[in-house]
């Protein structure tokens, strides 16, 4: 979602800001802009569309200034337009701000500022920030920002500059990430460390209600009580080398192909074979609480939510826990029974998703143990949890999540195994799970070698406008995730349904123009799935099956089949989703869609 970059140092700011914006593109946005200060004047350029459109607009303007701020905007208040793009300025056009998050009391503030004759140029909530700073400014930008944020309700990561405050970028954080990058005689602000590479690997994270002033000769950090703070510099991994498609046409395809490795990274060093159990260092501090745990509530969004749905089946199979799964945006409105014997488990690739953050804050207030499975080390969700497990899957740049989903499934299995072994599953059962986990990377590789076959089938199905995805038990969340992949990147309507529910509605849609993707495993639901497929065939529906090898009857009744290797039912979803990721990918590619940055979507959704 929205991205921020700020710079002050000895280089010209514009190229650094543009480069930083390009590195934030993967998060999803619909307009972009930058402001550079020079000789007591601000130059502001904004454009609807991509960063390259902004670059084109700015090409003729040399902008020699050495400090500035820039932003990619994902529209919330007001459509994507040049006026609504950030940076926003005050009436005198001396102050420029960029903002991520939502100012919840912006209407009240706007009314107050309008009464004081401020003139607004955009429909955004963010613009009030620039005008409030103007109200409070009397030669000291830092103090004006401090007074401003004390009036703001909601969430924000803000960066501000003033044309008269030479080489000063003031940043402040509440709820939306913003970090400091420390270079050699240059300092950066960014909503995401990706924007700063390759300039520096030295970063300083801010907590909520902290602010910093960056200037050419250094920086200082304060809390909102105006007290100085000392903070450690962290060295972040050089993700720049990883932000490379390595010869693949898209990040999504590269990430699909990274799954043998990311799955291995999810369990490497985390299996104790001799005891039939897993070892999760991140959960050690709460081991005693896990032993007496009665209930677990999984909260997450998007693909992470579908991983959560599978988590329910996995925990139910391996432990005695009562498991609930909630879409994070619904969680805080529900009256769920949560106490100290309940764990709330957040699943999140980015560790930034606003709804998931809000859900675990609420659960924390109610006394639950807060656990997380997060990919981005040190992210907001990772910081809030009491204990957790990192995916160690490397960065995921494709907006449609692939390798993190399968990694989440493996880690959920490890967690369930750990708790299950406290609660009664046998050594033999534990060992069986471990052996099956170890085989997964090889089995995924095998599916990937079938890519050409999957591509051929995908192209054959690319003509359809609607799809139904069906499955039972473990394959039901897989059906939903398969449908989500297709709609996210190809803009084709697709619905994921429990196969048993078909006769209660969706079957009325079936005809020769409405194909079904059926996910079938040789588990206790096999015969019932065959009947459901027969019902579709009887209504002239075309059926593509993703099925476990060896189920020959599937081949007889379905129009097309993609075979996958067989594993334990709880792990079968790890394998079954791979062909569905490729299926969606090749259809989207055939349609010429922007696969890594689908329209209207964002990689990190930082608004509720
Ligand atoms: C966005 C992304 C999805 C992702 C979801 C949850 O919608 O486009 O790919 O699954 O957010 O993100 P998280 O980072 O919390 O897993």
Q: In which order are the strands of the major sheet placed?
A: 3-2-4-1-10-9-11-15
Separate helix tally: 19
Helix/strand structural class:
alpha/beta
Mean pLDDT: 93
- Using only C-alpha atoms, the radius of gyration works out to 26 Å
Helix content: 25-40%
Question: Bound compounds, please?
Answer: 6-O-phosphono-alpha-D-glucopyranose
Strand content: 15-25%
CATH architect. name of the largest domain: 4-Layer Sandwich
How far apart lie the N and C ends?
12 Å
Number of strands: 27
Q: How many distinct folded domains? A: 3
Please give the oligomerization state of what you see.
Answer: single chain
| CATH evolutionary superfamily of the largest domain | Aminohydrolase, N-terminal nucleophile (Ntn) domain
CATH topology of the largest domain: Glutamine Phosphoribosylpyrophosphate, subunit 1, domain 1
The CATH class of the largest domain is: Alpha Beta
Most strands sheet: 8 strands, antiparallel
Q: Main attributes?
A:
binds 6-O-phosphono-alpha-D-glucopyranose; 608 residues; Rossmann fold; alpha/beta; globular
Word description of this protein:
The chain has 608 residues and is of the alpha/beta class. It folds into three domains: 239 residues, Glutamine Phosphoribosylpyrophosphate, subunit 1, domain 1 (4-Layer Sandwich); 196 residues, Rossmann fold (3-Layer(aba) Sandwich), CATH 3.40.50.10490; 152 residues, Rossmann fold (3-Layer(aba) Sandwich). 35% of the residues lie in helices and 24% in strands. It has 19 helices and 27 strands. The chain has an eight-stranded antiparallel beta sheet with strand order 3-2-4-1-10-9-11-15, with helices on one face. It has a seven-stranded antiparallel beta sheet with strand order 5-6-7-8-12-13-14. A five-stranded parallel beta sheet has the order 19-18-20-21-22, with helices on both faces. The longest helix has 22 residues. It is globular. 56% of the residues are buried. The structure holds 6-O-phosphono-alpha-D-glucopyranose. The site of 6-O-phosphono-alpha-D-glucopyranose has 17 residues, from helix 9.
